């Protein structure tokens, strides 16, 4: 049986160590969020901090690797939903899939909704996800299948607000997000609210709030 040469074995060990660190990051970020330090991640993996910096430049690089593919996966979901022949089904399927992913992974929800997290390499995917939400809503508006007064930017903001509700409801949010999504979808329906119009209120404190 041929034994591995030292250089080959060293490369294999380095690859395995790197993957152990990434797996520890996936687990910690999903449970706790990306606020944990790189030291926390390598400790979870069973290494010292020096091993981390031999494999990664910084924490941002770890975040990019862990969540880059997940963001691209959601982009792919959005593109498929945009081609759904039923515009309402396309929007609801996208929101359901996005919120399901965020409920299962706190770090993913944070990175998706906060462009300050990770590096600028994640920005194109985050930006396209927002654009896909707007496009999904535009399809509904063109078919008059959305409550009058709703535009894409409104639903993009609601998507982010639902992420906040999910985070506050953890760990129950793994399933309860569907309740909040149903409430929002009911509000988007053209049959909701009867003749009550939607109005734009000025941004700022309520007049009743006082000085």
Structure, explained:
The chain has 211 residues and is mainly alpha-helical. The protein has helices spanning 6-31, 38-45, 49-55, 59-82, 87-104, 106-113, 123-142, 152-168, 173-188. The longest helix is centred in the first third of the chain and has 26 residues, at 6-31.
SSE run = HHHHHHHHH
CATH class category name of the largest domain: Mainly Alpha
Report the C-alpha radius of gyration, rounded: 22 Å
CATH superfamily of the largest domain: Tetracycline Repressor, domain 2
Which CATH architecture of the largest domain?
Orthogonal Bundle
Separation of the first and last Cα atoms: 82 Å
Q: How many strands, what sense, and barrel or not for the largest sheet? A: none
Oligomeric state of the chains present here? single chain
In the CATH scheme, what's the topology name of the largest domain?
A: Tetracycline Repressor, domain 2
Tally of domains: 2
Overall mean pLDDT: 87
What portion of the residues fall into strands of 2 or more residues? under 5%
Q: What share of residues is helical?
A: 55-70%
Q: Kindly name the structural category.
A: mainly alpha
Number of helices: 9
Shape: elongated
